[in-house]
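Most newcomers find our protein records easier to grasp once they have seen one. The structure tokens are whole numbers drawn from a learned vocabulary of backbone shapes. The record below serves as our worked example for the rest of this section.
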Amino acid sequence: MSTTTLRLLEPDIDDFPIRCGTASLGRNTKIQLCIGSPHSNPLVIDLTHRQVIGRGEEASDVDIKLSPFEAVQNGVSRRHAALEVINKTLTISDLGSTNGTFINGQQIPAGNRRVVRDGDELHLGSLAIYVFYSR
């Protein structure tokens, strides 16, 4: 008697709508950062590589510059945090900032990484950043 092995195919997550709380990024998923309010005009970011977030002063090695959003007044460090996709999952890590990085009210210890889901609220110092996934 022969046995046939069935291969279960993973459904393509791009075939499903994005729901609040989703953690998996599909091939065509974009990340939108709404700064200060969930209804502000979003910054659409390209996450083909690690993105450092910070004040973004002149000649800085920061990818996402928050100086136009009153970063200094809100306690954002020059190099505050980093966003990175690891295994199709968006993560954030604190880069040793002075005023901390928070996700949904929970502080991220310096050097630690946390998963960022669609609809999460980040705080860099006291600057609120709302994260949304879109296609």
User: Anything to note?
Assistant: The chain is about 0% helix and 35% strand.
